[in-house]
Each structure stands twice: as C-alpha cells, then as structure tokens.
Design goal:
CATH architecture of one domain: Roll
Number of helices: 16
Distance between the termini: 58 Å
CATH superfamily of one domain: Dipeptide-binding Protein, Domain 3
Strand content: 15-25%
Strand order of the largest sheet: 8-9-10-1-11
Largest sheet: 5 strands, mixed
Number of strands: 20
CATH topology of one domain: Dipeptide-binding Protein, domain 3
Structural class: alpha+beta
C-alpha cells in the first residue's frame, strides 16, 4: 500500500528526447503572412506505428497519444522547463495536505453537444482508480481516495496520505473522458473505444472519422474549440499516415505526400532538411533522457559490480558525437537533469568509459575471463527498431562492452512488441528513452519504487524507498530538493539507472504550413492539440 501510487500493469510509453543544436525554426504563431483561422485544407502527418488503444486511459504507443490527445483533453499543459500551465483547469492546488482541487473552464462542450463538467473529471479519476486501468495514468492515482465534483467547475480530490506532487502530475498526465459515453460501457479498463458502436465523442480540436490499420487515421475538425485563438481549429482534417520508418517518412515529406513528420528526426538529417527548400525544421525542448536499464531480476545483474562494470563499458562521448551529431549533452549519469536546475547536482559525475576498470569490477563480482579475454556471461539488450537513434547506439554499446570482455546480444523488435517485452520483463538490458521526466519525486517513484510503472530495473532498495517516500510528503521545496539529491546519489552509485544523455528534438514540416506551437518532447512537439489547431496554410 505504501507504493500504490505508482503501481501500474502496463509499461509507460518510452520515447526519444534531447538538448541543444542550431537549426532553422518554424515561424512563431502570428509571424507568417498566411491566413489564420479555419481553412478547407487537410494536414497530413507521418507516423511509424499504428494505434494500439483508442481508449486514452490505456494508450501506450506514441501514435495512441498523438491521436487520442486530439480528442480527449488534459487538465494541465506544460512549459519548456517542466512547470505546469492552465489548460482545461484554470486553477489548481491544495486545500490542505490531503485535499487537492481543480477549477475548470465553464465553456467546454463534448462533440455531441453535452457540456464538459467537473463530474466528467471526477468520474474519470474514480473509474481509472476503481478499474485499475493499466498505464501511467493509473500509476499516478495510488494516493487518491476519491474525487468529487463539488460544483460544475470544481473537483476536489481526497488523498489517502499527503502527496505534494499528485495534483500537478494527474493534471498533466491524466485525461478527461465523457462520463455519459464511457460509464454505460462498464469497466473503463475494458472499453475499446474503437468507434464500432457509433463513432467517437471527444472534446478536442478534432474527432476521429475513420481509419484503416496500417494505412491512415483521419480526424475531422470540430465546430468549436475555445482553447485555440478564434475558437475554431485551422485545418479541416488531420490525417495520420503510417510508414515503415522515419526515412520513408522523410521521402514522403520531400515529395509532398505529407506535411509533417510526427517522429523526431534522426540527428544526421536535421541540418540537411533544415537547408531543404520547401521544408522547415522545428525544435522542441527536451525534458527526458536516453538510458540503459539493467534487469535486477536476472541473477548476474543483481550484482552491483556487474552493473557498475556495464556502466564503465559504454563510450558515452562517442555516442553523443557520432550518433547524436553533437546534439546531446551529458546529465552526469544523473536522473536529475540539468534542465531541472533547482534539483541538478553537479557533484554527481558521468560514469567513466574505462574497459580495464570494467574488467576489474567483473573479476570482483566473481567472474574469470577465458583465454580470449571474455567473461562467461552474455546479456540480451532490447530496443525498438523504429527508434533509429537507439538502434545506432545500441551497436556501439555492444562493441564497447566487448572491449571489456562482456558479451551483449542485440534484439531489435517492432515498437509495440518492444513495449510488450518491456512490460513483461523479457530482457536483460533495456535501451530506450523517456519523453518527459518533469517532476523528480514522481519520476523517482515511478522508476525506482517497488511496483513502479516504469521500474524496469525491478529495484527494491529500502534506503532509496524511504527517501522517495520522504520526498512525496515534503511540501517545502528546499527540503524536497535535498531529499531527492540524496536519492539520486543512491541511484547513481548502485547503477539502478544509466542515464546517457538529454537533448532537444527536431521535427520537420512543409513550409506551406505555419502557426505550429512547439511543446516539450516527442509526445507533444508540434503535433500537440493546440499546435495542430493553430496550424494554417501559408497563402
């Protein structure tokens, strides 16, 4: 029960992120000479995966998020430094240590004409909690007792214990669904919401009209969307088209078949596409990181010295230089990234690439190398084939580990298979990315507490658990920062996570469209609801 806030049955979506590099940027909203407001044009967007879940409380692929975010709103948005901003909620906070609240707008309507009220918000929270809908949203709700609509515009949350992060984290990560549509379907965890019972009802700038798996997902503009300037979305339609990989997407963009690539560009393509006539490259801030995680359920990886040896067998500088083209920076192997300036601790240093020290650590762990200098262990590293950046550096991790006598076998799979394997713990080493790690306490709880939704290390460290729990109930900022820095030192020393770099991301679009509003990470970037609703053709 202590850790229930962060237990979730499904894996969180893992996505690439990053920090720094110069590239041409899109015009700021309002800079272009193009006509704003509604148009008759369709904006076509490339993606590399199909939708797995149309139910927004269950979605775990990038395409799930991109499409359902256009139909189902979040209470809060996010700024470039991770602070939360008003969206559906106009005010939020705490009445006392165990009571939180949201005040929401009174001018929002579902696409079938029914008003969006606090009752929809309360019902969504209670239903996800009650039915244990697998996913990150449910993982945030462990300290929620019940949500109550005390008026049409105010929701109050009763907590089982003090939690200084839960209101902002639920507000940002959770969605709101229409009670009058979802409640008759029974368990929210089992409702497919695939349109087979008469279509979709949402409160976003667009609503799904039809789809063909492996081909396209088409959404039509709604009549009114008060969250965008002017109250009406720009494009008449949004069409997501499915391609096998980002390189095929780039060809489709260059040929005019699509207008935007939802996936982040491979670093090697950023400068080239930025200098291509007819295209623009837009930068999105990074609030996440790329990392390697060692599965401690495996006996060899349960040994601290083995994890330390693996951490010392990675050439981090080479990866950032060769694969990331200098568009990434070190976090100091720290889960408290430099962008989280108040929490960042410069005393935590990056693991040194030292094959000989790695060998010594393997010997200390009880392993003896054979005549060829190789230790009698092998580790299987999984990664997503759709992630071109990780696919490249995974090979470099294998090669540098071989210098230390450690054998790594690579297993790249289709993204949804990769996510399933991650959820099932079917790996020795996980290579991937987290898109948005915005709140240190919540991030540590999800990543390192027993049962945490993204505890891919499967760590259970009593000292670390205690510090995270202290951070959860600390409302004083200075106290919370001190606690989380101590927790971070344990993660670093024990190699419960190997944070490799952070970077900003870059996205490509046709320069025949303007008005995009960039938000942090690949989850949001320029395909977030406000951005696509604000997009307009350049005349």
């Amino acid at each position: 029960m202590k850790y229930s806030k962060f237990i979730a049955l499904g894996a969180a979506a893992a996505l690439a992120v990053g920090l720094a590099a110069c590239a041409p940027s899109a015009p700021e909203p309002g800079e272009s000479s193009g006509a704003t407001g509604p148009s008759d044009e369709t904006i076509s967007i490339g993606t590399t995966t199909d939708v797995v879940n149309f139910n927004p409380v269950l979605g775990n692929s990038r395409t799930d998020s991109w499409i359902t975010n256009l139909m189902y709103p979040h209470l809060l948005s996010i700024s470039d430094d991770g602070t939360k901003e008003a969206h559906v909620a106009t005010d939020w906070g705490y009445v006392d240590d165990t009571t939180g609240f949201y005040e929401i707008r009174d001018d929002l309507t579902w696409s079938d004409g029914e008003p969006l009220t606090a009752e929809d918000v309360a019902w969504t929270l209670n239903a996800v909690k009650r039915d244990q809908a697998p996913g990150t949203f449910y993982g945030q709700l462990g300290n929620l007792d019940t949500a109550t609509a005390v008026s049409d515009t105010r929701v109050e949350l009763t907590l089982t214990q003090p939690d200084s992060s839960i209101i902002e984290e639920i507000g940002f990560w959770g969605v709101v669904v229409p009670k009058h549509v979802f409640e008759p379907q029974g368990s929210i965890a089992e409702f497919a919401n695939d349109g087979s019972d008469g279509g979709w009802v949402g409160m976003g700038p667009f609503i799904m009209s039809d789809f063909q798996v492996g081909q396209h997902y088409t959404l039509k503009r709604v009549d009114e969307y008060p969250l965008v300037k002017g109250g009406v979305p720009g494009p008449a339609e949004v069409v997501y088209r499915v391609y096998p990989d980002v390189n095929t997407e780039i060809l489709a963009l260059q040929s005019g078949e699509i207008d935007v690539i939802a996936n982040a560009l491979p670093p090697a393509q950023v400068e080239q596409l930025g200098n291509t006539d007819g295209l623009q490259v837009v930068e999105a801030p990074g609030l996440g990181y790329a990392h390697l995680v060692y599965n401690m359920d495996k006996p060899d990886l349960a040994k601290t010295e083995v994890r330390q040896a693996l951490a010392q067998a990675v050439d981090y500088d080479a990866i950032r230089t060769v694969v990331l083209q200098g568009q990434a920076v070190s976090t100091g192997s720290s889960a408290l990234m430099p962008v989280l300036a108040k929490y960042y601790d410069k005393s935590v240093k990056e693991y040194e690439f030292d094959p000989e020290k790695s060998r010594s650590l393997m010997e200390k762990a009880g392993y003896t190398a054979d005549a060829s200098g190789n230790f009698p262990v092998s580790f299987r590293l999984i990664y997503s084939l759709q992630d071109s950046v990780t696919s490249q550096w995974a090979q470099m991790v294998k090669d540098s580990a071989a210098e230390a006598g450690i054998t790594i076998e690579l297993q790249g799979t289709e993204r949804n298979t990769y996510l399933s394997m991650t959820s099932e713990g079917d790996y020795d080493i996980y290579a991937g990315n987290f898109a948005i790690m915005d709140d240190p306490v919540t991030n540590f709880a999800l990543s390192y507490l027993p049962g945490g939704a993204i505890n891919y290390t499967h760590v259970d460290d009593a000292d670390l658990n205690a510090l995270i729990e202290e951070g959860m109930v600390a409302f004083d900022e200075d106290e919370k920062i001190s606690i989380m820095r101590e927790a971070n030192k344990i993660v670093h020393e024990q190699v419960y996570d190997n944070i490799m770099y952070t970077q900003n991301l870059f996205f490509a679009a046709s320069d025949e469209w303007a008005g995009f509003i960039s938000k942090p990470s690949e989850l949001l970037s320029i395909v977030n609801p406000l951005s696509l609703a604000s997009a307009h053709p350049v005349k």
